[in-house]
Structure formats: structure tokens, C-alpha cells
Specification:
alpha+beta, five-stranded mixed sheet, four-stranded antiparallel sheet, 19 strands, about 45% helix, globular, binds S-adenosylmethionine
Length: about 550
């Protein structure tokens, strides 16, 4: 694989470089003198990685030294942020809190709906302030109440082009895959209707001169490409917005990533940490898709939205690291006797979209289409049931699913994750009223889900909330089991195990943002921890 380093000229004088900083391998110098004179500047950006480039991945990050787990790799502010470009809620353009358009008040400058005319974000010099001047010149939108939130972030990028050449340069040099998003593609036609025409009809004349009208629609398409390929979803209060970061956007995807990140409120600074130890020379990766989707769903999503075929260790393994997250159950019959085979059906070549799926016990073979149809059909049932789940219906659904799917399949995982929360909480199924059978089932499910979750998320980053919910539910089931146990030693051992579960949560959730689901779970885990300690003392 051809891995070319990006930097070749001395960053002090521009002459050909003869050496690079041995720590980050990013900064190149022509001489020791220039390296020494630059240290004051360079130490602020001497990161433990270098940016390399190859034909497979494009630009990507490679560790230039061993990075211990939980180390800060870099932090940075976004180049631009704003409402998502797909299905954004009506929201305040100052602070992004969701709005009810019938009752909202309006920005005194542009008359777009806002949470309050005094919202501090309205005077953000990098975002609403310059856009306000553009929006305010089109009063027709206000009259027709055609507030198209999907167009706001692309509009901010167009304004960036005029206001900040350096940031614009960084933005527009990002990967946009325009070769696959040309005028004949579905995505092009769809963006034209949703965003491009709206901006051109309403704002292009206002933005000109400075953006050549002949190429303006192409620029907006390229902006949308950059946003879709590189944008990160960031939680802003009660809403998710889209943000673009110069370094984070260079990170490659892996279904077993080795980093985790947090966002600072208000300015949305990202902090990127190692989630496991990263060895010198290893690629530094993040995850672009959902960790609890099976391989076919993850690879399809990455191909459709990011235009590459993932070939990571997890995707290449038919069993997904032994979790069987995508495995099917064979419904063929055993030889002459009318007994279900019960074998496991796995893809023969998971990196081939057209691979056959074969049973490990009998000759049954499914085509990739048959396996995909079955998985999609059962997935629809799960989505429907999980909209308003209850114990009886979920148990019945799970029995049905397990006829066709491995018991650890991701559809079964989702139903079990919901069931462990219903057991103990639904009316008539409180912990003290759960049958022994259901209580033991809850414990077995927690054990199984814990195993899968830890295998797929070794850095405890992507599935943090799933993991914390399992820990919490596991603790409650163990406390109930201890209540039903007469033997004092067994009682204490169960309670100590449940304390471990809660302590795990306290450490897992310690950096969760205030008022988030994670911080709620942290609070209830702390309360439960006290309760269990009190129970132990009273024994
Ligand atoms: C957010 S960008 C990452 C930076 C990009 N490589 C660049 O050169 O600007 C995402 C794009 O990087 C490439 N990419 C990221 N992870 C990859 C992977 N695991 N395999 C192949 N290509 C990948 C794909 O082209 C993807 O659309």
C-alpha cells in the first residue's frame, strides 16, 4: 500500500525539508535551526499522529508513538456548524433549541423564528450574525413562512467562502465524492429539489458578487457533498446539529474504532481521546455507522452515504467476533427425521455483497438476497413492536425471531434490551412480582447482552448507554434475587456483584453532559449504589 506523507516543505522557509518532527512526524524542516526556532509555535500542535494518504483510504491518521488508553489525541473547534441537512426540526438559529412555529417569536434582524429575540447565539459572529444580514434581505420568505432549515448550513458555508478564505479552503478541500454524486445521481436530483433551488432562488443574488453564478449550483452541491461525507452530529441542548471539524474529518472509519469523543456545550469543541491503547504505526479510527447493526446493514449504509466498502476485521469475520450478531438459524430438517436442524447460517464471504449463506450443520444454502429479505422483514416487525413495547408482545416476538435468527442476532439483541427494562418496570411485572422464571431470564439476558456489547465496543465508547442500561438492570435483578435467597453468603455475594455493576456505571458515565440521558442514569445509579450499601449494612 502506497502511504505518502502529506508534508514535504520546511514549514519555516518553504525550502525542501530534510527531516520531520520525531514526535508527530507532521512538521517538516530543512534544518535543525529552523526546527528549533519553530518549537514555540509547533508545540501547540504537536500531535501524536501524522496524516498519510493512500489509494484505499484517502487521507487518514497514523499514530506516531504509542498512545495509552484515555489520552487526549487532539481537540478543536468546528469550521462551521448548523442545522442538519436532512430532516432538521424547526429550531432557533441562535441556540438550535426546537421551536413550535405557531408560537415562536422572531429574530429582530431577519424575522426567522427564534427562541427569544435576546438569544445570545443570534450575535454569534461566525454563524447567525452574518447569515442574518443575508436572510433579512429576502422578506418574501418571511411572508410565505417558507423557512427551509435544510438550507441554513449550506448557506453558512457559502457565506464562509466570502468571509474566511482560510476556513473555506479547509472546508472545500474535504472529500465530497462528487464523482459519484453527479447530475444523473439520485442524490443530486433530490438535493436540487430540497436545497439547491431554494438557495439559488432566494439568496444567490444577495450573495453575489463573489460567487460566480454559472457555477453556483455546482458549489452548493459540492458543499452538500462535503457536509454529508464529513459532518458529525453534535447534540446541542435538546436538538442534534451538524458540525465540521478540520482534523476529525480526516479520521477513517472502522467498525472496531480506537477512539471516542466528547463535545463541549456552546462552542461545540470536540475532544478526541483514545478509547483503547493505540500502538505506534496503528491507524487512528472512528465509527461512521451504528455499532449494533449487522455487517450487511453497516456496509450498505457506509457504501450509500460514504462511498466505500468497509473491510475491517469485524466486517471480514462471518461471526462478527463470535457475537453472531448477523447469524441466521437454520430451519431445514435433519435427515429423514422431522426435526429442525437448528444450525447456524453464516455468510461464506462477508466482504462479497453477493455471497452465499450456508448452514454449519446441513446442506441448506441461502442467496444474499434471501438472507437480506428475511433480515429486513424481521427488522420491520422489531421496529414496529419497539415503538410501544410490552412484556407479553415482546416475549412472543422474541420466540418468533428465534425461529429464524441466531439468539444473539442484532434484532434479538434489541428486543432483549427492551425486555430487560420491561421486566421489573411494567405494571404487573415489578421485580417483586416477577416469576422466578422471568427473573432468571432477565439475568441470563443481561449476561448475554453484556458479553456482546463488551466484545463490539471494547473502548466503551459507542455503546455506552446500552452498556450502562444493562449494568443497571443487571444490578436490579441481582438485588431481587438476593431478596429471594435465604443463605446469607449467597445474598452478600449477589449484592456485591450488583455494587460492581453500579460502580461500573459511575465510572462509565462520569463525563456525561448535564441533563443528558447518560447523566440521568448516572444519578439513578448513584442512588441505587447507596441503597444496596444500606441493604448490605442491614444484613
Ligand atoms: C470523513 S472522510 C475521511 C477523510 C478522507 N479520507 C479524505 O481524504 O478527506 C470519509 C471518506 O474517507 C474514506 N474512508 C474512510 N474510512 C474508510 C475505510 N475504512 N475504508 C475505505 N475508505 C474510507 C471514504 O472515501 C469516505 O467517504
Amino acid at each position: 500500500m502506497d502511504e505518502r506523507s502529506e508534508i514535504k516543505a520546511c514549514i519555516v522557509c518553504g525550502q525542501e525539508a530534510t527531516s520531520v518532527c520525531s514526535n508527530c512526524k507532521n512538521a517538516a524542516y530543512c534544518s535543525k535551526e529552523h526546527q528549533k526556532s519553530d518549537w514555540k509555535n509547533h508545540k501547540t500542535c504537536c500531535f501524536p499522529f501524522e496524516v498519510k494518504k493512500n489509494d484505499d483510504l484517502g487521507r487518514h491518521m497514523v499514530a506516531t508513538r504509542d498512545i495509552p488508553s484515555d489520552s487526549l489525541i487532539f481537540s478543536e473547534l468546528p469550521i462551521v456548524y448548523g442545522p442538519k441537512i436532512v430532516n432538521p426540526e424547526p429550531q432557533c438559529l441562535g441556540c438550535y433549541s426546537p421551536l413550535d412555529l405557531d408560537t415562536s417569536v422572531y429574530c429582530p434582524g431577519c424575522h426567522w423564528p427564534v427562541c427569544s429575540p435576546l438569544c445570545l447565539g443570534l450575535s454569534d459572529q461566525q454563524h447567525h450574525f452574518p447569515e442574518c444580514a443575508v436572510l433579512s434581505k429576502n422578506t418574501e420568505i418571511m411572508g410565505r413562512r417558507q423557512f427551509n432549515y435544510e438550507a441554513i448550513t449550506p448557506l453558512r458555508c457559502l457565506i464562509l467562502q466570502k468571509r474566511n478564505k482560510r476556513k473555506w479552503g479547509e472546508f472545500i478541500s474535504m472529500q465530497s465524492h462528487m464523482d459519484k454524486r453527479g447530475p444523473n445521481s439520485e442524490v443530486y436530483k433530490e438535493l436540487d429539489e430540497r436545497i439547491v433551488k431554494y438557495i439559488i432562488e432566494n439568496f444567490m443574488a444577495i450573495l453575489d458578487p463573489g460567487i460566480p453564478p454559472a457555477t453556483s449550483s455546482e458549489i452548493i452541491h459540492q458543499i452538500c457533498g462535503v457536509l454529508e461525507v464529513n459532518g458529525l452530529e453534535v447534540t446541542a441542548g435538546r436538538n442534534d446539529i451538524l458540525a465540521l471539524y478540520p482534523k476529525a474529518c480526516l479520521m477513517e472509519h472502522s467498525c472496531l474504532p480506537n477512539t471516542k469523543h466528547t463535545f463541549q456545550p456552546i462552542d461545540f469543541k470536540i475532544k478526541m481521546y483514545s478509547s483503547i491503547e493505540i500502538k505506534c504505526g496503528a491507524h487512528i479510527s472512528t465509527m461512521y455507522t451504528h455499532a449494533l447493526w449487522g455487517t450487511v446493514a453497516r456496509r450498505e449504509h457506509l457504501k450509500e452515504t460514504k462511498y466505500f466498502n468497509c473491510k475491517c476485521e469485524r466486517c471480514a469475520d462471518p461471526t462478527e467476533l463470535g457475537t453472531n450478531l448477523s447469524s441466521l438459524r437454520c430451519i431445514g430438517v435433519k435427515g429423514d427425521i422431522n426435526e429442525a436442524c437448528g444450525g447456524t447460517i453464516l455468510p461464506l464471504k462477508p466482504l462479497d455483497d453477493n455471497t452465499e449463506w450456508k448452514c454449519n450443520r446441513c446442506p441448506v444454502v441461502l442467496s444474499s438476497g434471501e438472507a437480506a429479505d428475511l433480515t429486513a422483514r424481521l427488522g420491520q416487525q422489531v421496529d414496529l413492536e419497539l415503538e410501544d413495547p410490552n412484556v407479553e408482545k415482546s416475549e412472543e416476538l422474541l420466540r418468533g425471531l428465534e425461529t429464524f435468527l441466531h439468539t444473539s442476532h442484532y434484532h434479538c439483541y434489541m428486543v432483549k434490551h427492551s425486555l430487560i427494562q420491561l421486566y421489573g418496570r411494567e405494571d404487573g411485572y415489578s421485580h417483586d412480582r416477577l416469576s422466578d422464571e422471568r427473573l432468571n431470564k432477565k439475568i441470563a439476558m443481561c449476561e448475554e447482552l453484556l458479553q456482546i456489547t463488551q466484545t463490539l465496543d471494547q473502548g466503551k465508547s459507542r455503546l455506552l448507554l446500552y452498556l450502562a442500561v444493562i449494568n443497571y438492570e443487571f444490578h436490579s435483578a441481582l438485588v431481587e434475587l438476593s431478596r429471594r435467597t435465604d443463605n446469607k453468603d449467597s445474598k452478600l455475594s449477589l449484592l456485591k456483584k450488583s455494587i460492581n455493576m453500579l460502580q461500573n456505571n459511575v465510572s462509565l458515565l462520569s463525563t456525561e453532559q448535564q441533563y443528558s440521558a447518560g447523566s440521568d442514569l448516572l444519578n439513578i445509579s448513584n442512588v441505587a449504589l447507596n441503597n444496596v450499601r444500606n441493604i448490605i449494612e442491614s444484613i
